[in-house]
Write a structure and sequence with these properties.
- The structure is a homodimer of 340-residue chains.
- Chain A has 14 helices and 8 strands.
- By secondary structure, chain A is α/β, with parallel strands linked by helices.
- An 8-stranded mixed β-sheet of chain A has the order 3-2-1-4-5-6-7-8, with helices on both faces.
- In chain A, helix 7 packs across helix 12, helix 10 crosses helix 11 and helix 13 packs antiparallel against helix 14.
- At the A-B interface, strand 8, helix 8, helix 9 and helix 14 of A face strand 8, helix 8, helix 9 and helix 14 of B.
Chain lengths: 340, 340
């Protein structure tokens, strides 16, 4: 990574006009950085560059420090770090477009919380396949509800990289007074925790939407975290990573807040909306929907028992009624099979 | 334990007209059991026996299966199991009164979530000191918000006993279709998890009351569980117990529900109320207040770093302002010292 220059040239680039991409651009610009925010099309880049506001950032104005562009028009090659905040299923196509435009000196960070449906790969694995990065790619994950970040409330997240030197340099570059980062060498654990918590958030939202209370939902979430850990360990993660901010912490924020898209989506499923209607109702990608399919396939591949993921898979892809699924989910959650 | 007789004589006794004592009496009577509910004074026993309603059970009526009495007037000696649902600081005096009235065939179960302030003992340790029970005492703990239990919503909890045979027999006796129990041999872990989560719930309520969002609160709770585990392991508990219903599960329900007394108490502290005013405002014992003092002493005794417990202790007992404490708490929670 080149040293963070004192010039006007942005050291931090962000790809994606998602809520999180916009939120991160705001965060780093507010902390005094020049930020390069990369959109997919020049039309939307120009519009945002001029209007400085976006429907995914209600009430907020993009600070002057944010320069909006598209990859081909930008000086992406000179960035110290590039954060990818695109939907997981669009990660690969974004990387293919960026590949010829990036230098080997730029550290690549995934801020996407999902798995690639077709390959079931984690985002940093997709990055390694598509780019030839000079440094091991990093993952950024944690309890970061975007509306709270935009409102200036404090938060923390994990910056994971297999290379401790990269992790330390990214921690220094990407920590702000309002978004504290701590490092972890367990990239797999951080990415799996961040992705699979959305499956549990969908299930918890569904149970809540059906009128089960906090007691039953707490039992469900407890069992949900246990099944994430079971799969994660089979995929090479450390069990204790899931007790940290990117596992338990993110699950706690996602399941206790009406601001969470995945949690809201679960409630809409409970109301009888179809998957398509839910996605249209939320108005943004609901990562948990594709992650559920990927996690279901992974559970079969690794022979791991994941009853909550399985029931949710049947609701999303096999027309099982949410009420029947919730009864089965709670039945499992209320009689934990491993310990009774 | 004598076999559960088919006669009218109650097999299950419950001590304490606390919300949880009343909720348990209701639960077991609804499931078809005759229940002996023991009050402190004959006046209140007679009144409840006649009116069949209680201010701590809003909207609910005590089923006919519940017989209300006082220990000296009852046939407590013939009970199969006696559940103590009294405030933790009153456990010892209750046991001293009950001691001459109990037979060695009755299994004793603590449903209290706290530590004795003066001795820092867990409730089953107090039971062992005061009674000469024929069986190792058991602990019942989990995400069991009483208003939801009273409303008939499903829940699960852990029944812990060092003796697997006692645990299995109590599981069979005390499980109902709406309150599923699973067993654990880790009595210390279950009791410490159930007690100390109230400290974290107070801290989380305080941060929420001060306007910090779900991101920061999730970080705080994550660090809170980590400090409970650190102390618990020093006190002989198994780390993984805290990832189950009596640790993570209970913390999740307590911190995400406005029904939790300890969580509400934290919010009132944030509003500037004194400890006395908070207890009067809640109208029932707030276990987390005395547990914070016990946990603080234990952390010093075992040389365990418990920053959240320490800050809360200073608010409750050393006149530290909630805002200053919250800033220090979040500062610690947002930069986890063990991993950065």
């Amino acid at each position: 990574m080149p040293p963070h220059s004192g010039s006007d040239h942005p050291a931090i680039g962000i790809v994606g006009l998602t809520a999180w991409g916009l939120g991160l651009a705001l965060t780093y610009a507010r902390a005094g950085n020049n930020v390069l925010l990369l959109a997919r099309e020049s039309g939307e880049a120009d519009e945002l560059g001029e209007r400085r506001s976006h429907r995914r950032l209600p009430g907020a104005t993009l600070p002057d420090g944010v320069c909006v562009s598209v990859p081909e028009r930008s000086r992406a090659r000179e960035l110290t770090a590039l954060i990818l905040a695109v939907p997981s299923q669009q990660m690969r196509e974004n990387l293919r477009r960026l590949a010829p435009l990036l230098g080997r000196e730029t550290a690549i960070v995934s801020a996407a919380k999902g798995l690639e449906l077709e390959t079931r790969l984690r985002m940093t694995q997709v990055i390694e396949e598509e780019l030839n990065p000079g440094f091991s790619p990093a993952a950024l994950s944690g309890p970061n509800l975007v509306p709270e970040i935009v409102a200036g409330l404090p938060a923390a997240a994990v910056l994971a990289s297999e290379d401790p030197a990269v992790a330390a340099r990214l921690q220094a570059l990407l920590s702000t007074p309002r978004l504290r980062l701590y490092t972890s060498p367990d990239v797999a654990g951080v990415e799996i925790g961040g992705s699979l918590k959305n499956v549990i958030a969908l299930a918890a939202g569904m149970c809540e939407g059906l009128g089960y209370g906090n007691n039953a939902t707490a039992a469900l979430i407890t069992r949900g975290l246990a099944e994430i850990v079971r799969l994660g360990v089979c995929m090479g993660a450390e069990a204790q990573t899931f007790s940290g901010l990117s596992g338990l912490g993110d699950l706690m924020a996602t399941c206790s807040s009406p601001l969470s898209r995945n949690h809201r989506a679960g409630k809409l499923l409970a109301e009888g909306l179809s998957v398509g209607e839910v996605e249209r109702g939320i108005g943004e990608v609901v990562e948990g929907i594709s992650t559920t399919a990927a996690a279901y396939e992974l559970s079969r591949e690794h022979c791991v028992d994941m009853p909550i993921t399985e029931q949710l898979y049947c609701v999303l892809y096999r027309q099982l009624s949410p009420r029947k699924a919730a009864l089965a989910l709670l039945d499992r959650a209320l009689t934990p099979e491993l310990r009774s």
